[in-house]
Amino acid sequence: MASISAKEAIIEAVETIIQYRFNHTALLWEALQCPGSPNAAHPNGNKRLAIIGDAVLLLGLAEDWFKGDETKLHAGDFDQIRKSVTSNANLQRIGMDLGLQRFIGTQERIPPAGLRSVSDAVEAILGAVYLDSGLEQVKDVMDALGLMPRERLGT
Questions:
Q1: What secondary structure letter does DSSP report for 101?
Q2: DSSP H helices in the chain
Q3: What is the CB neighbour count within 10 angstroms for residue 75?
Q4: Residue of higher predicted confidence among 35 and 23
Q5: For position 154, what pLDDT does the model report?
Q6: What is the DSSP letter of 5?
Q7: Are 123 and 48 contacting, i.e. CB atoms less than 8 angstroms apart?
Q8: What are phi and psi of 10, to 5 degrees?
Q9: Cβ 100 vs Cβ 121: under 8 Å
Q10: Dihedrals φ, ψ of 70, to 5°?
């Protein structure tokens, strides 16, 4: 059996964690690269994907809230859910709990993935999934990561 490269092993491990298989694994690899990482294909690392991921995280939450039982939730409820789910502290906690920090490429002169790097990578992974397959798959990954509080959203 042929051995796989370190890059392929990282991609496979992260795909297992997030319970999603990429059609275009270069998107996932970019999502795991911090700005300045020696392996980053883009000088800003995963920042472009993190911006998209931030937007689709909010869109996924809002869409499920909109489709939920409107007798149970009000706009103020959604705002509280949004703040708790999308906070950098929550994204960092989830990423660390899942061990994603082990796979995030950083600059060689700085310590392994710091707290902000982990939350950025979680957002970037969501952005990568969106570009790879769309919003429904992002919502599935959000479920797998514990970012879709369906009971709180009334769905």
A1: G
A2: 6-18, 25-31, 47-67, 75-86, 88-97, 115-133, 135-145, 150-153
A3: 7
A4: 23
A5: 60
A6: P
A7: no
A8: -65, -45
A9: yes
A10: -65, -15
Enter the tokens of residue 141: 């990954």
- Residue 27 CA to residue 113 CA, distance in Å, equals 19
According to the model, what pLDDT value does residue 111 have?
Answer: 46
The distance between the two most distant Cα atoms of the chain, rounded to a whole number of Å, is: 57
pLDDT, tens only, 108-139: 434 445 557 899 999 999 999 999 999 999 99
- 7 CB-side CA count, 13 A: 10
For residue 34, the tally of other CB atoms under 10 A from its CB is 24
The residue assigned the tokens 């472009």 is 48
CB 73, CB 65: distance < 8 Å: yes
Summarize pLDDT for 60-114 with one digit per residue, the tens: 999 988 887 777 777 678 888 899 999 999 999 999 999 998 898 854 434 445 5
Rounded to 10 degrees, the C-alpha dihedral 91/97/101/104 comes to -60
60 in Cβ contact with 148 (< 8 Å): yes
Q: Known catalytic residues?
A: 54, 123
Tokens of 67: 């489709």
User: What is the dihedral angle through the alpha carbons of 127, 143, 135, 79, rounded to the nearest 10 degrees?
Assistant: -80
